[in-house]
User: Fold this.
Amino acid sequence: MARRGAKNSTGIARLENLQAHDAWAGFVCVRCGMLNTVRIGQKLLAPDDALESCRWSCGKCGFEHGKDSALPDWDNWPGEATAAGSAPAMRFWQGFFRIHTENPSSYWKQCNTCGRVLPFQAFSRHAGWGPLERQMECRSCKGAINAVLNPLRTKEQMQESASRRRVSELLLKGENERMDFADLFKRFGGKCFKTGQKLDIHARETWELDHILPSTWLYPMTKANACLLSKEANQNKKAAWPSHFYTNNELIELARITGADLSLLASREPVVNPEIDVDACVTRYLKVREGGNLQKRVKELRDLLDSRGLSAGLSAANKRLLGHA
Ligand SMILES: [Zn+2]
Ligand SMILES: [Zn+2]
Assistant:
């Protein structure tokens, strides 16, 4: 996933000056039951060292949690078991520090987006990040960020849109222009247009061509309709209409680079390509030799054309082929 800087496309900002990789301990006060968190830092504690050195004070009642403290006067405990330095009390503190320090998953961490200090499990894994190897945002915030970047869609919607992309790409075969990648890189300054990440033209698996105006609205790939994106950014864009993915400033810049029609890019609702010769596309599509079920292909094509309001304009012959009366 693309790293977001202070200025990002989600509008959800990171908190500044927050040590997001630090480990914390979360503990419940043995006297008052208050949940406390204490910052540990970049180096995790060994349980025995924690027992020797830690004195954690409760933020509410001030009770000091450490091996030299007596336990509170619990009614169901005999007095001698709670006395400071007694064997039961020592064992209690040993277990207390083991609970909070034994495994990385015992620790807590601060979310750099909502600022809450939360248990280990509230963060998804990120190899190599800090002693806990967790993401900087908690899973709640990550969900909110992803919802902005990649609107939540049902599995059916995903399948439907994947099939539409495939059908429309077949429909547009023959309309697409051959791309000059060197020229594309030059025009976009060798960077992902969305994230600004530097891209390597030779590392073909790291970048993609965005169909700015999506193929599912029957826009072929042309020089004016191609945008250079990192693979991650294009995964978020997919078949989104440009104004649903790019900011207004980005749309203006994009039109400047590509020479595309800004009013079309900025239109709030998608518009079917008015220039496309749908009949020629359909005729070509039906001729494409593609393995698989012809009946299914015809149905997918009919669904796409119906959903875009294009069936009525077809020639009588193509209407018949697609089963329209
Ligand atoms: Zn307390
Ligand atoms: Zn959060």
